[in-house]
């Protein structure tokens, strides 16, 4: 029996529905503990709910196999497009009208281009702001990619893609202008003493 959420509280709705609501909006994998906290349920119940959703999406339940799947990646769970549809989705996304990058995205992209391989934390340290959403945007546009995961820290290292080179009209990163002439030498505000 399904709870009527129009008159009852969300906490009374089925666990799998609450999990789906959270899974639809997250952009990075979340652990069972994180999901349990989000939906207000014990971890074992969330584990069972996740298993039920995996079976349902894979067509092992009452309905058909879906074009997306629920996968565990890096100790967390997230919805992904099924590999069968990667090309279809890439064509669709690539065919959308490109929009301009924000100043924050351009700055983050420049740091990654000049410092790669570089972690999100290193970029945030250089820019002195949180860059999580900007990195997701750049990944989504195919301008940067995950190169490797550091075996000691687990941090993902990012680098630029050929798509960036194409957008910039260059053949390699060696064609980027040297950065040092663009930097201030720090002498502004100081006057020579006589």
UniProtKB/TrEMBL annotation:
What keywords would UniProt list here?
Answer: Cell cycle, Cell division, Chromosome partition, Cytoplasm
- Does the record bear Kinase in its keywords? no
Fetch the Gene3D superfamilies from UniProt: Winged helix-like DNA-binding domain superfamily/Winged helix DNA-binding domain
What taxonomic classification does the UniProt entry list for its organism? Bacteria, Bacillati, Actinomycetota, Actinomycetes, Micrococcales
Name used for this protein in its record: SMC-Scp complex subunit ScpB
Cited InterPro entries: ScpB_csome_segregation (IPR005234), WH-like_DNA-bd_sf (IPR036388), WH_DNA-bd_sf (IPR036390)
